[in-house]
Structures are given as structure tokens and as C-alpha cells.
Design brief:
Chain A: This is sulfate adenylyltransferase. Chain A: It holds the Pfam family GTP-eEF1A_C. Chain A: Its EC number is 2.7.7.4. Chain A: One of its GO terms (molecular function) is sulfate adenylyltransferase (ATP) activity. The complex is a heterodimer of chains A (about 425) and B (about 300). In chain A, the strands form four sheets. In chain A, strands 7, 8, 9, 11, 12, 13, 15 and 16 form an eight-stranded antiparallel β-sheet that branches. In chain A, strands 2-3-1-4-5-6 form a six-stranded mixed β-sheet, sandwiched between helices. Chain A is built from seven helices and 23 strands. Chain A is globular, with a radius of gyration of 24 Å. Chain A is of the alpha+beta class and about 425 residues long. Chain B has about 300 residues and is an alpha/beta fold. Chain B folds into two domains: about 200 residues, HUPs (Rossmann fold), CATH 3.40.50; about 80 residues, no CATH class. Helix content of chain B is about 30%, strand content about 15%. Chain B has eight helices and ten strands. The longest helix of chain B has 19 residues. Classes of the chains: A alpha+beta (about 425), B alpha/beta (about 300). Chains A and B meet through α2, α3, β2, β3 and α4 of A and α1, α2 and α6 of B.
């Protein structure tokens, strides 16, 4: 691997029937990311189950219950590396009852892959997956039109599905959408180019993943450093040292920059930027650094350092797209803990503006109940202002989670409108 | 602006440092679980980076099975001295002596599963609310489902079907009295990433990882080191081979591979060409298809 190789995170959504597990198995197998002992174990299991040949889908088996039921329940993470990139797959279930798992897997992805069974074309589930990719603002979408072998590798069918999908995409906020006709079972256009579909001029899936431009996925404009902790070494030579430690959420911070600390509003200049014992001239997302300032000001966890000429909005009344993640339904007027970057406050859901029917994408406005897997636009009020950006502009400073104070469970994920 | 991106190792490092700082900020009494293996050494190295110029602000904890490679213990003591941090030792031998657990019998007996009780006892008696581990999701299928911040109930148990969703980089470490968390800062690293990073940073690791001559016995297709704990079968013969260990566990269950890789460069090259997973030589994982899942549910690392 080369030193400048990047990391690409992608999510796969689909059900067993779409061939999602087969696709992942095929990617790992054809890119030689599967070890011999894993292969032997899969061969044995395939034989036991009476499958012909090696069932590639078995590579993605996880917990005992999932093996027994033959389904994916939770998000599973898989890894492979090629000479060009390192990849992390968030393998998520596709069924409506696991919407929350899809949202979880999508939250950190650069790329969403959406599987379509060529025999069935665009179905309700496809719409739902595209909607989640759009809602979570995943920068790139690859639509895998799978099982082309079962429709005689027909270009006509492929084109029809592309048109159907583009119609949905036109109603969503998605920018970069690519289509690949494939057969994960036979290996066509996954790693190797298909000989059965000479009419397809594009690249196979792996090549697409290896070469797509992802450096611009992170916001490089709005400098934001949420403070996680303050480093105060009790040792000689560092007695006056105050290092403000955090991971740059977006933008670029440079030595000498005029900065403002939020929410206090105090201003200063960046004196130094450090990573371990190295001093840096600049830091950019997603680097973990610590900075020192020219002036001695009071800063603690939950504060944010920003450039003085570009600040987020302090806000107590916040509109968010909320995905409810918990079995216990949302209760109106109940207090929840809201976490936003390293900041933590108390919040209340004031109003459900509308809910989505996530199969038809229709808005439902006369139903304010929020149950597991529901996605809704809501208004929340916090006890103190949060320093927010819109999620579309900034995935880190535009996202929140809600925690139920009675159970400590994470009950909702929100994207600030 | 295209130069403003991180390579994969820098991104993994940055993510791990972020997690370690979150642990420090969200918990009262965290520890690093330190086994002397490369993954816990890596986590310790990352913690050093995360808090510099301050010292690592929490202790290292070793669950000592008593069946150690002598080299591992020496390495542990050296690193503790070097970092100037506290060491907490949970002793499996003491758990046996106190009758908390019973020793396994027979040829392939190990103290692997006994560690669970010792670990949970040490967590409780030291009032630890977060134990940071070097577990990686690529190691094993049950670990692929693990969270960065992983909740344990007041019996120390993991409930894989009822895990908290983890979105973006927002981590929820809230817990009730008696419960604790496990945190896994290097969840997203693969074995190859670990070696590439150790090589890049020139991190000190025990000599056992480098090819060396050693007394070994062929058992179940791997070279088991000879030691005072090994019970030889009649047909087994102790021979001297040049081997290295790909992972380090108890001396009784960790198999070595024949190898000439005696530098980090050679190890990285060798690992890149490996055709078997690194836990393939660990008899503790071979016991059943869900051996790891079952142990993890009970409170294993």
C-alpha cells in the first residue's frame, strides 16, 4: 500500500434476496481479501447446508441468531484493502424494520451502494434506501443493478431501471449517482469487467470505488474544533501548558489564525497546533490535534474553537430531521439529553412538524407519534444554545443524538435542517 | 484544496485518538487492558499520543493467567516504567486459589475462559467504569458487530442484540452504577494496518513477534512452545525451530509459524502474504463456530 492511500467507507443496504451478501462475498473473494481458513470454513458450511459450490453469502454471517435465521440484523463492519485504497463496508439489513440500522451504517459513509434486483426493478425498498442515503447526505451513490444474468444481460431492462431510479433521485437531494449492471453471483462487473455485457461502457464496481474522488466530501471551508478535553501536564517544562484537544470537524485551522471560543465569545490567536510531539502549521478535518492559544482564557469540554470570521449559529430552537431508534416511543414534553459534538445539554421535543411514510416518501402531518424507525421533522428546544450548522453543510456540527435519561439509551439521531 | 486529506493510517490514528479522549472525558475511572500483545501495545502508543505532553491519565490493567511468555512480562514491566503509569494486575491464579474458578483438565486445557471471572472481579474491585481494549472488528465474526463504546450490564455481560446505535462520531457512554463499558479505539484497523503502523512509528514490541529459535512441539498443525505448563503426549517430540508468533496469548495455546522475518519490514511483508487469519493458530477460537461470541457475551475481552 502506498502512503497516500485513502480510506473509503461505504454502506450496503439490501435484503438477502437482492444478493447483498453475495455481492460483499464476491468483492472480498475476487479482491483476494478472504483467507484460506475462512474459505475452508465456508466450504464446509456450504456442504452441510447442501449448497452447490461455495456460497459466498456465508462470508457475511455474524452472530449465532443471524446464522440460524439467515438474516442480517445488526450493522456488521467488513474490511478489505486493494493496492489503491482501504475500504470499510458497513453491511446493513435492508428490511423496513431495520431502518435504524441502515441510518447508523449510513451516518459515516462516503458512498451508499443500493442493490436492485434486475428482475423486479425499482421497488418500495429501493425508494427507502435512496431516501436514507439522501437524508444522511451520503456524497455518492452507486446503484448496483444485480442479477443481470437472470434477465439475459439485457441492456433494455438496465436502461429502464436507470430511468426509474433517476425519477426518484430527481425528488431527492443526491448529487453523484452511478449505475452498474452486474451479476454478483457470476462475478460480472463486481471486480472484473463483464464479458456478457459489452454494451456497458463504465467501470466495474471495485474500480469505481477505487477511483472516485472523495477528498471533497469533507467541508474544508468552515473551521470548527469542538473541544473534547483540556491537556494540563503536571510536568517540568509544561507547567503553564494548556492544550485544547479535539478532532477538527471541518475546515482548516492555521497557526496565527484569529479565533473565537464559543459559546463564551472570547477571542484569541492560535499559538501552536500539536499532534503528539510534532508541531504543525495547520490542521484540517478529520485530524485529532491539540492547540494552544496566545491568551489564557477559560475553555472546557463542549466549547468550540472557530475562526472569528466564520461562526456557526447559536440556537436553542432547532429544526431537525429525526430518526427514532428505540422501542420506547417518543414522549412529548419529556426531557432528553442531547449530544452535539462534545457538548451535552437537556432538550425537549416541542413539535412533530411532519412524519415521512418512508415507502412512498409522502409527508404525514396529522400524526405526532414517534415510534421505532420513524423519520420525522421535529422542533426541539434546548436549555442552552448549541453551536450548530446545517447537516447539509456539515455532517459533524449538524448532527445530534438524543439519550433517554431514564434508561441511558440512545433513542434518536437527528440531522439539523 | 486536494492536498487536504489524510491517508488511511493517519485517519485510523486520528479516529483512535478521538475515541481515547472521549473515554477520558466521559468516564471516571478507565483503564487500558494490557496483555503485552501488539494490539494493546498499539492502543497504549495511541494513548501516549492522545494526551501528550501529559502522561497517559489512567492505569494499565493486565489479566495475568500465570501462563505467560516470560518475554511478555518483562516487556510489560519495562513499558510501565517508561510511561510512568500505574499497573493493575488481576491474577487468574488467585481466582483459582480462592475457588472462584476451576482449572480445566486434559491435554488442551487452557486458562483462557478463566480470565473472564478474573477480569470482571478486577473491574469491580477497582471500580473501573471503562476498560479500553485492543479488539478489532476484522478479527472474528462476533467482533465485527462490536461498537466503539460497548455497554456491559452489571453482570459484565454483552448483549449483542441490544446494543446502542452508534452514529457519526457521537458516543454515548452513559451508564448506571455497577455497569461498565468496553471501548475499542482500534475497531477499524486490520492486522495489516496494525503492522504497517507499528513499522511506520517504529513501536517497540516483544521479541516473540520476530523470528527466533525456540523449543517447540507440533500440535494440531501448529508449533506450540515448550514450557513448564505443557503436558507432552507420548508421540510428541520437542524440537528447535526458527519461529515467530503472529499473535500472543497464553504460552499454552499460542502457536507459532516457521519464519525468517526478524525485522518489522520483513514481518509486514510476511503478513501481507499470509493466507490464513491470525486467530487460526489460537485453539481458544477453534472450539466452536460461536466460541468468541459465547465468551464475549459472558464478559470476555
Amino acid at each position: 500500500m502506498l502512503d497516500n492511500n485513502q480510506l473509503l467507507r461505504f454502506t450496503t443496504a439490501g435484503s438477502v434476496d437482492d444478493g447483498k451478501s453475495t455481492l460483499i462475498g464476491r468483492l472480498l473473494y475476487d479482491s483476494k481479501s478472504i483467507f484460506e481458513d475462512q474459505l475452508v470454513a465456508i466450504e464446509n458450511t456450504s456442504r452441510k447446508k447442501g449448497h452447490e459450490g461455495v456460497d459466498l453469502a456465508l462470508f457475511t454471517d455474524g452472530l449465532r441468531d443471524e446464522r440460524e435465521q439467515g438474516i442480517t440484523i445488526d450493522v456488521a463492519y467488513r474490511y478489505f484493502t486493494t493496492p489503491k485504497r482501504k475500504f470499510i463496508i458497513a453491511d446493513t439489513p435492508g428490511h423496513i424494520q431495520y431502518t435504524r440500522n441502515m441510518v447508523t451504517g449510513a451516518s459515516t459513509a462516503n458512498v451508499a451502494t443500493i442493490l436492485i434486483d434486475a428482475r423486479h426493478g425499482v421497488i418500495e425498498q429501493t425508494k427507502r434506501h435512496a431516501f436514507i442515503a439522501s437524508l444522511l447526505n451520503i456524497p455518492h451513490i452507486i446503484v448496483c443493478i444485480n442479477k443481470m444474468d437472470l434477465v439475459d444481460f439485457s441492456e433494455k431492462i438496465y436502461n429502464k431501471i436507470v430511468t426509474e431510479f433517476e425519477e426518484i433521485a430527481s425528488k431527492l437531494l443526491v448529487t453523484d449517482v452511478r449505475f452498474i449492471p452486474m451479476s454478483a453471483l457470476l462475478g460480472d462487473n463486481v471486480v472484473n469487467k463483464s464479458e456478457n455485457m459489452p454494451w456497458y461502457q463504465g467501470a466495474p464496481m471495485l474500480h469505481t470505488l477505487e477511483t472516485m474522488h472523495i477528498s471533497s466530501d469533507i467541508n474544508k471551508i468552515d473551521a470548527r474544533l469542538p473541544i473534547q478535553t483540556v491537556l494540563r501536564p503536571q510536568r517540568e517544562g509544561f507547567l503553564d501548558y494548556r492544550g485544547y484537544a479535539g478532532r477538527v470537524a471541518s475546515g482548516i485551522l492555521r497557526k496565527g489564525d484569529d479565533i473565537t471560543v464559543l459559546p463564551s465569545g472570547f477571542t484569541s490567536k492560535i499559538k501552536s497546533i500539536n499532534l503528539h510531539n510534532t508541531e504543525l502549521d495547520e490542521a484540517y478535518a478529520p485530524m485529532s490535534v491539540s492547540v494552544t492559544l496566545e491568551d489564557d482564557i477559560d475553555i472546557s469540554r463542549g466549547d468550540m474553537i472557530v475562526r472569528s470570521n466564520n461562526k456557526p449559529e447559536p440556537s436553542q430552537d432547532i429544526e431537525v430531521m429525526l430518526c427514532w431508534l428505540n422501542n420506547t416511543s417518543a414522549k412529548p414534553r419529556t426531557k432528553y439529553t442531547v449530544k452535539h459534538t462534545s457538548n451535552e445539554q437537556t432538550a425537549m421535543i416541542k413539535e412533530v412538524v411532519y412524519k415521512y411514510d418512508i415507502n412512498t416518501l409522502d409527508r404525514i402531518s396529522n400524526n405526532s407519534e414517534l415510534n421505532m424507525n420513524d423519520i420525522a421533522k421535529v422542533r426541539i428546544r434546548t436549555t442552552k444554545p448549541l453551536m450548530v450548522d446545517s447537516y447539509r453543510e456539515n455532517r459533524t456540527t449538524g448532527s445530534i443524538i438524543l439519550i433517554d435519561e431514564a434508561t441511558n439509551e440512545t433513542v434518536a439521531a437527528g440531522m439539523i435542517v | 484544496m486536494s492536498k487536504y486529506y489524510l491517508n488511511y493510517l493517519d485517519e485510523l490514528e486520528s479516529e483512535a485518538i478521538f475515541i481515547l479522549r472521549e473515554v477520558w472525558a466521559q468516564f471516571d475511572n478507565p483503564v487500558i487492558l494490557f496483555s503485552g500483545g501488539k494490539d494493546s501495545i498499539l492502543v497504549t502508543h495511541l494513548a501516549k499520543k492522545a494526551f501528550y505532553p501529559a502522561k497517559i491519565p489512567f492505569p494499565l490493567m493486565h489479566v495475568d493467567t500465570g501462563h505467560n511468555f516470560p518475554e511478555t512480562i518483562q516487556f510489560r514491566d519495562d513499558i510501565i516504567k517508561d510511561l510512568g503509569v500505574e499497573l493493575i494486575v488481576g491474577s487468574v491464579q488467585e481466582s483459582i486459589d480462592e475457588g472462584r474458578v476451576a482449572e480445566e483438565k486434559g491435554k488442551n486445557a487452557t486458562r483462557n475462559a478463566l480470565q473472564i471471572t478474573t477480569l470482571l472481579d478486577a473491574i469491580e474491585s477497582n471500580k473501573i467504569d471503562c476498560a479500553i481494549g485492543g479488539g478489532r472488528r476484522d478479527e472474528e465474526k462476533a467482533r465485527a458487530k462490536e461498537r466503539f463504546f460497548s455497554h456491559r450490564d452489571d453482570f459484565g455481560q454483552w448483549d449483542p442484540k441490544n446494543q446502542r446505535p452508534e452514529l457519526w462520531n457521537i458516543f454515548n457512554g452513559k451508564h448506571f452504577q455497577g455497569e461498565h463499558f468496553r471501548a475499542f479505539p482500534i475497531s477499524n484497523w486490520t492486522e495489516m494496518d496494525v503492522w504497517n503502523y507499528i513499522k511506520r512509528e517504529n513501536i517497540a514490541i516483544p521479541s516473540l513477534y520476530f523470528a527466533h529459535e525456540r523449543e517447540v512441539v507440533k500440535r494440531d498443525g501448529t508449533w506450540i512452545p515448550n514450557s513448564e505448563f505443557l503436558v507432552l503426549e507420548d508421540h510428541e517430540e520437542v524440537v528447535i525451530k526458527k519461529i515467530r508468533f503472529r499473535t500472543l496469548g497464553d504460552i499454552t495455546i499460542t502457536g507459532g509459524d516457521e519464519s525468517d522475518a526478524d525485522t518489522l519490514e520483513k514481518i509486514a511483508l510476511e503478513v501481507a502474504g499470509m493466507r490464513n487469519t491470525e486467530r487460526g493458530n489460537r485453539s481458544d477460537d477453534k472450539r466452536s463456530e460461536s466460541a468468541m461470541e459465547d465468551r464475549k457475551r459472558q464478559g470476555y475481552f
